Amino acid sequence: MPQIDIALLGLGNVGRAFARYVSSDERIHIRAVADSSGGLLLDRPEQIQQLIAHKESGRSIRDFAAASFIKDAPEFVKSLSSESIRVLVESLPTNLADGQPALDSIKAALACGINAVTVDKGPLAWGFDALKEAALAGNSRLAYSGTTGVSIPDEITGERVLEIRGVLNGTTNYILTEMQERNISFGEALANAQENGIAEPDPSLDVDGWDTAVKILILAKTLMGTDAELSDVSRIGIGAQTDALIENGRATGRIVRLVGRARIWQGRVRVSVAPKLVAPESPFYSVEGTSKLAVFRTEGRSEVTAYARSGRDAISQTILDDIIKVVG
To answer: CA–CA separation, 88 vs 251, rounded Å?
Structure first.
């Protein structure tokens, strides 16, 4: 495959992990980098690793190359076309309030013919249709496998999807696994997850069910054509109150998983998130730790299952797969 010139929008944990992951991959050439403050074009391949070290020392992109720094995000996106950069990889921090500033940057890239790969759920939650329209207008492609927890199985291509159920958040699944396997409280399990770098210092996005909600919503938009918004998702997270549900499960031979669900009910697609008791015969029963799994029920098939790992290497491989897909 010919070399693929790409730009990174976002140089946080995910962006840096991806840059390291593809450092020895001769197919991928990182030609530009930006974060929420601005960006720059790179002259030499070795600059990306120098820039990563620079950022991890607490300094800004501006300090790295002040003379060629591009402060304006639209100007940065515009510069990619003139440099023949084929793919924008976006991994800015997720903003579930309105999807910005990533939403506008991805739309601009797609509209001017640059393919986009994103792992950021905010733009898909708030601008799903607008992004699809921008891609159509620019004859470009958008891939977002990293926003849904699991990749959509090829087997259901062209099928009418009737229901999606999934354990889609690795952090909450780890916490629930700890609580049930070690018989400890929610607070203890959360503290363990934070100590091991699995949960953020502020874990509300995960434990309150927001992350699962937006992932199942994106899947429902993609496969079921719903126009539902994030505010329409019925959402119950996990917490100290989950202890009682776990005790109920122990008494009945079941375990608790946080499950996102999209289904057709009374002629509409309903999307929800809640802790559920699952029996040993359920595919979710054996999904432990930070692993994820989704089940897709279609009109032509019974059920198709997709499994995914968590971790930086896993998300980096997902990004790489999406890059190959959009340029193919």
So the answer is: 51
Helix, strand, coil in percent for the chain, rounding step 5: 45, 20, 35
CB 276 within 8 A of CB 256: yes
pLDDT band at 67 (very low <50, low <70, confident <90, very high): low
Beta bridge partners of 262: 164, 271
- Residue 8: strand pairing partners: 33, 89
Q: Which of 133, 317, 126 is nearest to 229 (CA)?
A: 126
The three-class DSSP label of residue 69 is: coil
Q: Tell which residue, 107, 154, 152, 100, has the closest CA to residue 129.
A: 107
Q: 96-149, pLDDT tens digit by residue? A: 999 999 999 999 999 999 999 999 999 999 999 999 999 999 999 999 999 999
On whether the CB atoms of residues 322 and 144 are closer than 8 A, the answer is: yes
Bond preceding residue 101 cis, omega within 30 of 0 = yes
